[in-house]
Amino acid sequence: MSIRFRGLKLLGFVTSAYLLGAWIEPDKTAHAFMAGAKIFGELLLIFPLIILITALIDYRFDAKTFARHLGEESGAKGWALALGAGVLSHGPMYAWYPMFEEIRAHGVRYGLMAAFFYARSIKIPMLPIMVDYFGVSFTAILTLYILLAAWAQGWIIERFCGQCDGEFKGKS
To answer: Which of 87, 104, 111, 112 is the Cys-Cys partner for 158 at CB 3.0 to 4.6 Å?
Structure first.
């Protein structure tokens, strides 16, 4: 198993931005750096839990199983699973990217991935607050529209990307 670090360009960019900022506005840059360091320190406390959960998911779930349920022949069940899993998923979106990269290699459809990511905008813990502020009708209709839009986005992605390994299929 090889470990890839894909953040070198971003690290270089951020470092360059801080160096430029330190040259132009040293006090503001120092304040920004300290604020960022504080947040990073808080995140370090959460990382062991994230690593544990990720390891358990990797141990428990097989990419081939996901691909079987979200692959070419998944049909309506695949759309329902992608939308439902998107609504139920929590945490930062970037945490899902490595898993989706792996299951994509086993044949998961781009459209279902897009629908999953779009459906993540429905936050179950926030629904009661939304109902309190805007009412049941508005919340229900908006939630339905988000799910329909998630499906539509996935359908559009499949039309343009299909199974072409990420290359855009649209007409020039």
So the answer is: 111
Residue-wise pLDDT tens digits, 147-171: 999 999 999 998 887 655 555 454 4
User: Of 89, 99, 113, 124, which Cα lies nearest the Cα of 161?
Assistant: 113
Domain count, the chain: 2
Check if the beta carbon of residue 140 is closer than 8 Å to that of residue 122.
no
* CB 168 within 8 Å of CB 161: yes
d(CA 45, CA 49): 8
Q: Is residue 77 domain-shared with residue 48, that is, in the same domain? A: no
CA separation for the pair 80, 116 (Å, rounded)? 10
- CA separation for the pair 54, 46 (Å, rounded): 12
8-state DSSP, 64: H
Q: What domain range includes position 116?
A: 62-160
